[in-house]
């Protein structure tokens, strides 16, 4: 269970989040929607400790996440993808996925620098795990290709593989289907649904694509100007006059 309570973030004169509260049950999928600038990415940044709120609490499985360093968040089983892809363009697809797995590595930096045998064993283990994920996401054919130059739809899957390498229980997806074609959106939705089941994931998804949100999420939270303006089952939130007004900028 993830609980966000009273989160407030100010950037100078802008209040990016204003007392936002909601809960995400273990195993559920929650969509976070709202017009541009509503505060969705800022909220993700609070959950992964890239941003420290001015007020409020974030608890995951009873633990105060705001007391943790960013790398410690990944070790608690929380991973994310990024709106503009968080991949290293010159590294191969496999190496990008192994970077994700490294957050779970047990060998210390000194052991790594000295290339001790246990480091090599760990590298081999991480590589095997990366290859298994690449097979699962149908990426084996491009495992040795650098990320740069691959089609955008493929990179979205690589980014998903990198996040899964953390072995998350809570996965945060930031606009996963932005920039994909119609057909690619449907395929990606099928993939996320399958992955959710296989890996027993709890999901929080920021996405503007309503079809994707409706087909995946059990609940939806809508933000506007940093405030939660609606929350509930997807069909109910989609019909909510405040949500329609926020998106269209006119009274429903
Ligand atoms: N580092 C920052 N410094 C100053 N202002 C910021 C910063 N990050 C975000 N903001 C502002 O905070 C508000 C919320 O931005 P945020 O990116 O969280 O919205 P969003 O809902 O994710 O938007 P989008 O759908 O366009 O990604 C915006 O007004 C934005 O300009």
Descriptive overview:
This protein is α/β, with parallel strands linked by helices. The protein has ten helices and ten strands. α7 (182-198) links the parallel β7 (170-174) and β8 (202-206). It has two domains: 1-77 and 168-252, 3-Layer(aba) Sandwich (Rossmann fold); 88-162, no CATH class. The strands form two sheets. The chain has a six-stranded mixed β-sheet with strand order 6-7-8-3-9-10, sandwiched between helices. α3 (93-102) crosses α5 (117-136) and α3 (93-102) runs parallel beside α6. The protein is globular, with a radius of gyration of 19 Å. Helices cover 40% and strands 23% of the residues. It has helices at residues 40-47, 70-75, 93-102, 109-113, 117-136, 152-164, 182-198, 210-216, 234-239, 241-248; strands spanning 2-11, 14-24, 29-33, 55-60, 63-64, 78-80, 170-174, 202-206, 219-224, 227-232. The model has no long low-confidence stretch (mean pLDDT 89). It binds adenosine-5'-triphosphate. Adenosine-5'-triphosphate is lined by residues 11, 14, 16, 34, 36-42. One of its GO terms (cellular component) is plasma membrane. GO terms for molecular function: ATP binding; ATP hydrolysis activity. InterPro entries: AAA+_ATPase, ABC_AA/LPS_Transport, ABC_transporter-like_ATP-bd, BCA_ABC_TP_C, P-loop_NTPase.
Q: Which topology of the largest domain does CATH recognise?
A: Rossmann fold
Classification by helices and strands: alpha/beta
Percent of residues in helical segments?
Answer: 25-40%
Shape: globular
Describe the largest sheet. Answer: 6 strands, mixed
Strand fraction equals: 15-25%
Spatially, the strands of the biggest sheet line up as 6-7-8-3-9-10
Number of domains: 2
Give me the Rg, rounded. Answer: 19 Å
Helix and strand run:
EEEHEEHEHHHHEHEHEEHH
Question: What's the architecture of the largest domain, going by CATH?
Answer: 3-Layer(aba) Sandwich
* Average pLDDT for all residues: 89
Oligomer: single chain
Q: Assign the CATH class of the largest domain.
A: Alpha Beta
CATH superfamily assignment of the largest domain?
P-loop containing nucleotide triphosphate hydrolases
Helical region count? Answer: 10
Straight-line distance between termini: 34 Å
| Ligand catalogue | adenosine-5'-triphosphate
Stretches with pLDDT under 50, minimum 5 residues = none
